[in-house]
Amino acid sequence: MKWKQLPLGPLQTNCYLLFDEEKQCIVIDPGANGEGLIQYIEQEGLKPLAICLTHAHFDHIGAVDEVRDHWNIPVYIHENEKEWLLDPSLNGSARHPMQPIAGKPADHFIQEEGTLSIGAFTMQILETPGHSPGSISYYLKDIDTVFSGDALFNGGIGRTDLLGGDHATLIDSIHTKLLNLPDHTIVLPGHGLSTTIENERTSNPYL
């Protein structure tokens, strides 16, 4: 199993393509530039099975409907943000100089932590709120990797001054859910470069 990082849009939000030897693929956080993203996926011969969202801020969801409709695939999101795909005032697009994002509902709502299986992919869902109320991280033990969204960055943490954000909740999420993962776990954040759990535990100035 492999992954590809694709920074998209003006905020360079990391979209990730998680794929296996059969070229089946999970699209994580398709934030913008849907046409280019679709072109890249087709160019690589990948076959998307689903879209998995770490959370529903506008810079992570801008290309959701375009990608979903192109392949007729389902979208997964935490139930605490089930209205955010539809409402620009919730996803934040109404407060930015851009086209407001008011898309369609997700197809599946994650209600609790546990195992999510899609095709040959098995991911552990970790609830990591604080940056937003429905923030989740996807942990794949088989490849020692966690997709942390905007909870934990390389040398930083997510902002908590947006709707539903809470600093104490975010710090608790990071310490109890993410930093408990094995030290060698690769952290793939929503923005910026990858890191490891060990690096963040030992050197992140916010922790």
From TrEMBL:
Q: Which CDD domains match?
A: metallo-hydrolase-like_MBL-fold
* Domain of life of the native organism: Bacteria
Per UniProt, which keywords does this protein have? Hydrolase, Metal-binding, Zinc
Indicate yes or no for the key word Membrane: no
> Quick check: keyword Signal in the entry?
no
Q: Which Pfam families match?
A: Lactamase_B (PF00753)
> Where does the Metallo-beta-lactamase domain lie?
12-191
Q: Which cofactor does it need?
A: Zn(2+)
Q: From the Swiss-Prot or TrEMBL record, give the protein name.
A: Metallo-hydrolase YqgX
What the entry lists under InterPro entries is as follows:
MBL_Glyoxalase_II (IPR051453), Metallo-B-lactamas (IPR001279), RibonucZ/Hydroxyglut_hydro (IPR036866)
